[in-house]
Amino acid sequence: MLHEGRIIAEKNNMKIIDCNYCGFKHIFPLPSDEQIDEFYEKQYYDFKENTSRAPDLQRLSKEDSYKKEYEWRCNTLFSDIHTTLVNIKNNKGKICDVGCGTGDFLKYMDLNGWKCTGVEPSKNVNRIGNFSDINIITSSFQDFVNNHSEEHHTFDVVTLLNVLEHVVSPVDVIDQVKMLLKPKSGILVVMVPNDFSEIQNIAREKLDIEPWWIAIPDHINYFNKKSLKEFLESDDFEIIHSTGDFPMEFFLLQGDNYIGNQELGKECHNKRVEFELALPSELRRSLYQKFAELGIGREILIYSKFKGNNE
């Protein structure tokens, strides 16, 4: 495999290339699988807890902040995924969340009638997770697929929420997902940061700063809606639905430069939460679908169906 392409950014002596082979942007050279396994099994959550890039984990450590964060997610992202999946499939079913982290999404889906399984490589996540009675497997995704043949072709839905940006080979992960999905009917839900977007570049030029969204060492790949859609379609998935979320760059363009300013970042986050909770759900969903069509929104969420036969 020959990874080559135009260098579009550099950070911490690492290059970001627009890879001609992969069809999306990623760091170069790529780390080894062994380096990645070591990082996520032993270092990732300690790293996240001790950097400003971990607002979710930092809020989780404080009961009041956690409750507010969880309620916000339940009324926005989690509810949106649940509602969209029920509309697509006309029922509830069996779901596997890969890289389930602290388990909040599965907790919500379990309470709403889904049969839930989570896969999480970090051995440290159990000390901060909220799993209750949900089936959580502490394992790499590849080992889970290899060691649980009884789960092959049994899942109605597999979710990869902020996962593909972290892995050395997204193609390998998608191939493993195919082993879990029910033939012809299984749904894959992928959410990734929407990086190197037009609105990011506008904000970067206005502020005259380096691309702040490059997150080394944990973010390896950098997708936008177009590259994610083409990546999934090239691997025999049919796109069913796509949406975005709140473009945090709006704050930057209004003069609230939260980059490197943790307190201002919290204020901007809280304003986003208030905005989303104030809107009726259907209006917010419609607005965020339009954002996705324009290629803006801090994250991109795509629902797709595997067209192959899982053989």
What does this structure look like?
The chain is of the alpha/beta class and 311 residues long. It has a single domain, classed as Vaccinia Virus protein VP39 (Rossmann fold, 3-Layer(aba) Sandwich), CATH 3.40.50.150. The chain is 42% helix and 20% strand. It has 12 helices and 11 strands. The chain has helices at 33-49, 55-60, 63-75, 77-89, 104-111, 141-147, 170-180, 198-207, 225-234, 249-253, 262-278, 281-294; strands at 5-11, 14-19, 25-28, 94-98, 115-120, 135-138, 157-161, 187-193, 221-222, 237-243, 299-306. The strands form 2 sheets. A 7-stranded mixed β-sheet has the order 6-5-4-7-8-11-10, with helices on both faces. Strands 1-2-3-9 form a 4-stranded antiparallel β-sheet, with no helix packed on it. Helix 5 links the parallel strand 4 and strand 5 (115-120). The protein starts with a strand and ends in a 5-residue tail after the last strand. 37% of the residues are buried.
Estimate what percentage of residues fall within beta strands: 15-25%
What is the CATH C level class, in words? Answer: Alpha Beta
Count the helices. How many? 12
Number of strands: 11
Work out the helicity level.
Answer: 40-55%
Going by helix content, strand content and strand pairing, the class is: alpha/beta
Question: Can you summarize this structure?
Answer:
The protein is built from twelve helices and eleven strands. The protein is α/β, with parallel strands linked by helices and 311 residues long.
